[in-house]
User: Fold this.
Amino acid sequence: MPGDTGEKTETPTPRRREESRRQGQIARSADLSAGVILLGAVLLLQFFMPSLLERLGELVRLCLDGAGRVEAGRDTIREAAKGAVLTLAGCALPVMLFLALLALVTGLAQAGLLLTGKPLVPQLSRLNPLTGLKRLLSARNLVRAGMSVGKVVIIGGVAYLTIREQLPRIIGAIHLDFGQTLILGGQMLFSLGLRLALVLLVLAILDYFWNRYKHEQDLKMTKQEVKEEMRRMEGDPVVKQRRRRVQVQLILQRMGIEVPKSDVVVTNPTEIAIAIRYDEENMAAPKVVAKGQGYLAERIRQLAVQHGVPIVERPPLARALYRLVEVGQEIPPQFYKAIAEILAYVYELTGRTPRAVATGV
Assistant:
């Protein structure tokens, strides 16, 4: 049997997943954030490049204008530097905020909101060189190293093919003026950046699903681990059985006291039994003093027979009272009429006065 050999074949429990998450062990890919940020940066620069170039051109003109003034003093230089800083901030700040938002959204999409300091806690076991060497040469790290080399080869190949494709345009740029050369360079950089970003994003998505699969395999449990987990969550079965036995004993003791004092027992007829008592001087309405199903119902009937308490079969009423009314609670108003009829019948049967039924219920 696989479970007998300690093989991890069982789906991880929610508690196992939560513990792993608290330890900071989650399925995520750092390359996914990098790919999304690179793609966002390329698209953002493509759409806003004209306005950025215009503002940067204003900055250059401002600097050149200030440099051409012989009489420029400290105040002039300070104003020029202030304008340059504000211009650069105006260009860079929206881009940085947008990229930071992309990184935040990508992180939340992978792992949700996770705040834990467990990965930062130093572990002395990591200082052992033998343990570190084993971890470095483990099959998982070798696979990761191979995947990293593969990513570099694929990205390098895409970059090489893109540059080779643009090589005729690069050679022909010697016949263009400075402005046209800048436009051509921007187009080629956008084409290269877009392709690299898309390739990196695809590789990152594959890497994420691979990490998710490996994380799920790491979380799997043996049959024995599942049993121990359930025992910790639900308690020791022996203790639970003992506790249940004590509860049944307490219920039986209370039944032995309350059922003999009840006025009637309503039954299902064999599955459910409800003992009802009504004291017109101390109660506003009849009250359920005992109820039970199965063995407890049989015990209530036995006590009722032993102490001469009438037993009335009303299956729908018994089921409704068992489901809606707890022991010690009064009968809800919707059952007043049915209980009044039963009590009137019992009082007539036992020779008691039905005054309580007429006035109390």
About this structure: The beta strands are 264-267, 272-277, 287-293, 311-313. The longest strand covers residues 287-293.
